[in-house]
Amino acid sequence: MTPTSSRRTAALRLLIPALLFGATLFIRCRGISTHFWLLGDQIRDWSIVLGSFSSLPLVGPATHVGGYTIGPGFYWILWACRVVLGPFFENLPHAGGIGQAVLHSLGEALLLFAVWRRTQSVWLGLATAVLVATASLDLALSPVLWNPSMGAALAKIATALVVMEFYRASAVRTAVTTAVAWVAVHAYTGAIFVALSVFAALLVEPLWRKAHRTVARRAAVIAGTVALLQLPYVAHQIASRFQDPAMGALTDNFSRILSGAQAPRFAASLAGYTHAFNSIAVLPWTARYAPWIRLVCGVIVAVGHRRDPVLLTVTLAPQLAAIFGFAFFLGALDDYYYLSLMPAAMLTLVLGATTVPGVSLRLAVSVALLAAVLALVPARLRFAATIVRLPQYGVLVDASRVLVRRGQPLRAVRTGFTLPLTSDPEFLFRVLGGRIDRKSPWIAIISADGQVAYRKAGGP
Q: How far apart are CA 313 and CA 136, in angstroms?
């Protein structure tokens, strides 16, 4: 390869991921100021990050099974999004949604770069990245201020860093890769399976080579990075005198299983993963044979890439670990629990479908696979545009601006149309600088077309 062609290849390896980043970010953020999903979780978390960094919690958001996530990484990132992007969007919460969308698109751009570099095939890189980026449920959730989606975005980035072997150059890079994976767990506990697989991938290659000193150094870096990131949680526990456990429900599940009161639910866990994969990656279609296709591709990858322990660990291990781990969770398995596994699942499918003998045949199959993936994109985008949206958001923003400009203190802001139960029509008014005075006689009513009317409290 001549120096000129080498420079051209290097430029393309930056340009094409950059174009993918821009395209996916545009798709995610298009119309976000009019349909941003604003429910109780988003109101709670954006209210928290509107304050100073020192006022942020030392732990993560509350979970629906009790307790909270084990670190404040989600709030750190969301606060940074508010500081950087908030001033451009009047500190409205969809600024945080845009920030989270940036992380998702960055993860897919890095994944494209990583797969391209590792397989020497731009076609495989594009097929993997586009499959991940346009999965309908993941795409719809990516600009929503919600910690499971943040965890999934960070899991994408961590997976890409391992595939591109970013960690190999120095201890600092190993620490960065570790930190991204562990902060994904801060954001959402379900990302633990990806994080543990990332840690294993960092160690498996020197173990394979019997480079024990390298293993020891990397293990020390991993342990030290995780310990540093857990200092806020330790401080929280000390402040609460260890009376505020993070994951009480999970501890109870394990206790019941270890005591013999209940058995692990491996069949339910496998069924939960299958259902989640179909909901996240297959819809709007149905695929009866998707589990068998995944199994066949997994076997092909395990055999075809048996001399690449890092790739095997970062693709197959998270999925197997999740199936095993969720068998010890006795509650219902929601589809979003598995969002962080999608990069590993999609990469398994792509590698399994293209592990064929012969360079020419592999190229033909890779190009055909990319064409098939691109053919799926329009329907996936249309379906994503129908879910996880609050079409009244733009109306609430515009009406709140009108109310703030008028300067009338209000007892309450209400709507003449139905909102989801956990939404709050007063929240945007307060963010924009409006004042709620419970002694004011006036209540503002926002109609479905954005018009504002006033009514006296206690009046008709």
A: 26
**What six digits make up the tokens of 166?**
């970013």
Listed by start position, the domains of the chain span: 3-262+357-384, 393-456
| pLDDT score at 363 | 93
Spatial CB neighbours of 295, under 8 Å, sequence gap ≥ 6: none
Query: At which residue do the structure tokens 């007063």 appear?
Result: 426
Low-confidence ranges of the chain (pLDDT < 50): none
Q: Please, are residues 145 and 100 in contact by the beta-carbon 8 Å criterion?
A: yes
pLDDT of residue 248: 60
Could you tell me the two tokens for 307?
């001399």
Non-local (6+) Cβ contacts of 127 within 8 A are 350, 366, 369, 370, 373
Q: How is residue 304 written in tokens? A: 């075809």
209-256: pLDDT as tens digits: 888 899 999 999 999 999 999 999 999 999 988 777 777 666 677 677
Q: For position 9, what pLDDT does the model report?
A: 78
One-letter amino acid at 179 equals A
Look at residues 111, 110, 193, 112 and name the one whose alpha carbon lies nearest to residue 151. 193
109-163 pLDDT, tens digit per residue, is 999 999 999 999 999 999 999 999 999 999 999 999 999 999 999 999 999 999 9
Please name which of 385, 400, 271 lies closest in space to residue 30, comparing C-alpha atoms: 385
Report DSSP letters for 198-242, one per residue. Answer: HHHHHHHHHHHTT-HHHHHHHHHHHHHHHHHHTHHHHHHHHHTTT
Q: Say how far apart CA 186 and CA 71 lie, in whole Å.
A: 5
Nearest-angstrom CA–CA distance, 86 and 278? 35
**Alpha-carbon gap, residue 94 to 85, rounded angstroms:** 10
| φ, ψ (nearest 5 deg) of residue 182 | -75, -35
CB 366 within 8 A of CB 123: yes
CA distance 376 to 371: 9
Total count of residues recorded for the chain: 460
The amino acid present at 102, given as its one-letter code, is: V
pTM of the model: 0.94
Instruction: Write down the pLDDT at residue 241.
Output: 82
